[in-house]
Amino acid sequence: MARNRRLILSPPSTVWDLLADGQRYHEWVTGTQRILGVDAHWPQVGARLRVRVGAGPLTLDDICTVRICEPHRRLELEARAEPFGAARIAMQLVPWGENTLFLLEWHPLRGPGTRMHGLPVDYVASVRNGMMLTKLARIAVREHRGALRRP
User: Fold this and answer.
1) Count of alpha carbons within 13 Å of 13, Cβ hemisphere only?
2) Which terminus of the chain has fewer Cβ atoms in its 10 Å neighbourhood, N or C?
3) Cis peptide before 120, with omega less than 30 degrees from 0?
4) What backbone phi and psi angles, to 5 degrees, belong to 142?
């Protein structure tokens, strides 16, 4: 299992707004080339987000399904990218003063990733997820500052 933590200098409501907007995942999820579709009831349980992921010409289509949703606190997704199987992506938002402590866990559920699970795979996932949280934090801080400036 890969675990990442990041203090985001904006409130949980701002961070949640980004998670709750499936059309914006390409802005902060590393490797996402484009959004193919988002169910209208995203991020409610059962809603799906379809994305194209990859680098250059090497792409595959991924489907993320919401498994647990506790608005402003917790979102858990099952990401399925065949032929690689599926993974659990658990995001938790913890109020930390006026800011957000963002906890992210990634764990393979099915497919080859379960057999290759361990230090090399977890390390690569941690590096990718760290990049992703950096992008998410930058967007959240920018949007929070913008909201404070508006009358």
Assistant:
1) 4
2) C
3) no
4) -60, -45
CA distance 140 to 54: 24
Indicate the angle between helix axes 12-19 and 119-149, nearest 10 degrees: 110
pTM of the full predicted structure? 0.89
User: Among residues 93, 96, 125, 107, which one has the least CA distance to residue 16?
Assistant: 93
Query: CA 79, 81, 87, 89 torsion: positive or negative?
Result: negative
| DSSP letter (8 states) at residue 20 | T
Q: What is the pLDDT along the chain (151 residues), one digit of tens a residue?
A: 889 999 999 999 999 999 999 999 999 998 899 999 999 999 999 999 999 988 888 888 999 999 999 999 999 999 997 777 899 999 999 999 999 999 999 988 887 666 666 667 788 889 989 999 999 999 999 999 887 776 6
Beta-carbon neighbour count of residue 53 at 10 Å?
Answer: 18
Tell me which DSSP letter residue 9 carries: S
